[in-house]
Amino acid sequence: MPGAAYVLAFSPENLKHDGAYHTLKVTLASAQGFTVQARKGYFAPRKEDDLAAQEKDDLQDAVFSQNEMQAIPTEINIQFVMVDKTEAEIDV
Prior knowledge:
- It is a single chain.
- By secondary structure, the chain is of the alpha+beta class.
- The protein has one helix at about 50-65; strands spanning about 20-25, 40-45, 80, 90.
- A hairpin with a 5-residue loop joins strand 3 (about 80) and strand 4 (about 90).
- The relative contact order is 0.14.
């Protein structure tokens, strides 16, 4: 178990939304006793005209990501309905 671990991220400039694969190379200036685990590359996102498809892709990326997330945007709707005088239902 490492004494410390760091997660690095970057946002490429002039990103083309073409879905192309781009290679990455991560190195240490001084590797004295340190190791690096890094992806070999990434796929640029595709420009989606369909918002629902983009949201689905974003959710899939979040679910299968190796990064730890502190929050996932959600929306919950609750409706309380009285069926009769003694019975009620809650729809979530």
